[in-house]
Specification:
The chain is an alpha/beta fold. Helix content is about 45%, strand content about 15%. Helix 13 links the parallel strand 11 and strand 12. The longest helix has about 30 residues.
Amino acid sequence: MRSVTVQIPDVKWADVGGLASVKEKLQEAVIWPLKHAALFKEADVNPPRGILLTGPPGTGKTLLAKALANESNVNFISIKGPSLVSKYVGESEKAIRNIFTQARQAAPCIIFFDEIDAIAPRRDGTDSNFSDRLVAQLLTEMDGVDDLKGVLILAATNRPEAIDKALLRSGRFDEIIDIPNPDVDSRLSILKVHTQNKPVAENVDLAKLAILTEGMSGAELEAACRQAAMMAVRRMVGNSESESDCSVTQHDLMRAINECRTMTGKEPIADSRPKVLVVDDEKDILSLVCKVLTRNGYEGVPTDDPQEAIERIRNEYFDVAVLDIHLPGTDGVELLKDIKVVQPHLGVVMVTADADVQFAVDSLKAGANDYILKPFDLNTLMTSVQDAFKMARKSKKGDEVEAEGLAEAGK
């Protein structure tokens, strides 16, 4: 085995999304005895000698171990269990002795055994005496004659049932902490951690993604955020148009999440891009606007027929509508009024080639959020759509809060 490295990791609690209760337990078991040694001595309480982290793969066990070492400001020795296994007789036991010797010299120190089940398998008599020797050496180091003052053994496994029972008694691994897949609040925290330094588009709804990603581990969510950012980079590299940007959109995140789910055998989740109804009698404009909407994480639904627009509004939910005020045989303002009757919280952007102030005033009075002239700049259009989307969500949330208040008052 190669020599181990003593280090203090650069991972902090803030880098670990969620897991508040687990962090609290680790703080009590490791950081408190260091910061309040006199208090522990007065209370005659010995800190745990070993802590075992269990849970499915990707739930953050290794990340927690690194953050714990950083927050407690102690040295850290990280060992992958399989790396200790040697084909030469006695070499694995020697490697274990060397690790503990180095930890004592570097105290205060945390020894972290990842995948500890590889070096401490259950002794059931069916294996060779190799595993017996490994377990015996580990037990000797953990509670033998040599003092482990200032050394904490931290271990992780996703197969706790495979670990020899002798290691799990008090005085060896005093604390066994299970780390399940993250709940919705933890998933939201994880998504925030892994998107905080990325150029995330304004329409991204992390709270909604946290709800949709039930059953996914922290590692899977991190991978999804990374893949979504790569999708944005590929889009930027492959598109030289001036309106393209490197923002990570809701659609990027949904695609990346579904790719991760497919790779791990989970069912993909439905696309939740905000829907925008685009009504215009010019086919080229319909195509261009929908293309830009898609690039920015929206789903554009085009139509040049006002009656079809009304029918869709009655049967589908939309977040925003982009309406041409001058449609053949139809008054755009009247169409807007009809649409608002069916979906009052719909955000609306009116477009026109006629710079008539009265049209603008009538549109805004009828419930439009913005009014822009053709030919319009695509960046201006997207800004108007995003503003209308945010205003529509705010309006809907306000009405929901008011409705809850009235319901509560009527009880």
